[in-house]
Amino acid sequence: MTESTTTRTVPPLFAQVATADEAIAHFRGRLAFESDVSDVATALAADEPGFIVVDTRSDASWAQGHVPGALHLPGRRIAQEAPGRIPAGTPVVVYCWGPGCNGATRAALEFALLGHPVKEMLGGFEYWVREGFAYDTADGVMQRPVDALTNVAAAGLGGAQLPTGEVGVISCAC
Question: Judging by beta carbons within 10 Å of its beta carbon (0-12, 13-18, 19+), is residue 58 exposed, middle or buried?
């Protein structure tokens, strides 16, 4: 009697892969440092969000639009100005333009060096707008239609949405 052995071919993509424990530590760690725009918008809708949102972009970018209630503090000025504008230990969420920019990452480092609990808002202002959230400008509050590529639920393409009573909050379809 012969014994048949089945061998699995490992795809090249998974030739080097973390163990489950390493993956858990890595992804848990990322969630400690990052948030997405939908989660930030949901948290801001609370009566007392418990954190400050900081727009780290230039003056010209700020003037184009920004997250309602955000504090404008360009990245290059954080080390000098943040201690006088944000109480020590206050949790901070930072954002810059979008995923192609690491300005928010640099800003998060500056806030961490100052001792603040800090998270980076992934997607930045670009995805805030693309997901259909209202934003402030010098001309008032603006809001663009939801980009169906970023939020399929709100664009009517299926997925879960938040209960009807939560005005202005769109749930990520993830």
Answer: middle
